[in-house]
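Researcher: I need the complex structure. Ligand is flavin mononucleotide. Inputs:
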Amino acid sequence: MATHIQTQALNHIPADVVSVSDYERLATEFIRRDILEYINGGVADDHTLLANRHAFNHLSLYNRISANFSNASTQLELFGRTQTHPLLLSPVAHQQLVHPEGELATAEAARAMNTPMIISTLSNTPLKEIAQKAKRSWFQLYWQPHREANARLIEAAERAGCEAIVITLDAPVNGLRNRAQRAGFQLPTGVEEVNLTGLPQAPVQALNIGDSIVLKGFMADAPSMEDLHWLRQQTTLPLLAKGISHPADAKQLIQLGFNGLIISNHGGRTLDTLPASIDLLPAIRQAIGNDIPLLLDSGIRRGTDVIKALALGANAVCIGRPQMWGLAVAGALGVAHCIKILQQEIEITMALCGCPTLDDISEDVFFKHSDIKQESIKEGNL
Ligand SMILES: Cc1cc2nc3c(=O)[nH]c(=O)nc-3n(C[C@H](O)[C@H](O)[C@H](O)COP(=O)(O)O)c2cc1C
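Model: Output:
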């Protein structure tokens, strides 16, 4: 394990840390600059990274009065299991970059806060150990070129007690992480992708002179529709696809037998100028109907963001980078605090929007510009 790459985390929560963005600010003091650029950066010119926040901020909410909160609750059912809040932890690779305990500290926080953790294929700790600590976990699969390797990873996840499998489909090649490149980021020695050790390797693709390593190399290893069909046969666990942006892809995956989707632009880390994930949501919900669980990540930083996602058709949301910020600043305590902050913000937003339960959250929460009376504009009342 690499020990020289981060400043030691605090064993308490500083009094002035009250929001997720406070963790983002403070994390800059705990994470080495090249690593920070790898974590915080988007791709290319960061258009999508910025769009994620911009889109949430430009949706406005109404404050409503007099709803009956006697049976109020943030509880939901996902794949037959009850959750206290509509919040999960997105898969985030290489957590030992910011804390020596890495994923184990995050798992401890997930357990304490009763929040399912989606464990990355690229974790630095074996998935079995993380799953044991987290209590409730899902496993995120990065497709491996050899089918047998995927089968073994799924088997390991099932044995570890993971409750669902999520295959990430938006990153068959890495996006252009220009900020990380400029800062000279390389994965430090000692930060290992331990789940991949010993898995069967596919023969290396022979390229002809002039062949593109991206188009003929990496893309030859990307999962085909036949592979996804095969994957569906490999597990009886709920199977979700992450990184879906086009409604036609969403529909096709559901027809193939996928049980749910995670709308995501990978936190702006794959294709730059993809729309904000919240802007992708309504069309995908419409394409797959109301019965399929739909999750969303990318840019969730406030309880208001969560309510907006639910109002547009998501069942739950996931957070990515905030895990790394919390972990770097105060280890398990920091991650748990980030989750706690968001849970409280969700509750406050529901209270102020007049929504006692998640089922009460609908598009009615939104203020629309068409709601402004033309006369008011004319009279200059606004
Ligand atoms: C450092 C880092 C590592 C990530 N690793 C993975 C991964 O291993 N698998 C995956 O599907 N997504 C990965 N993601 C993407 C997240 O799962 C998630 O989609 C994204 O972070 C959500 O956006 P947010 O960071 O704005 O919350 C990673 C993101 C970051 C920042």
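Model: Summary of the prediction. The CA atoms of residues 1 and 190 lie 5 Å apart.
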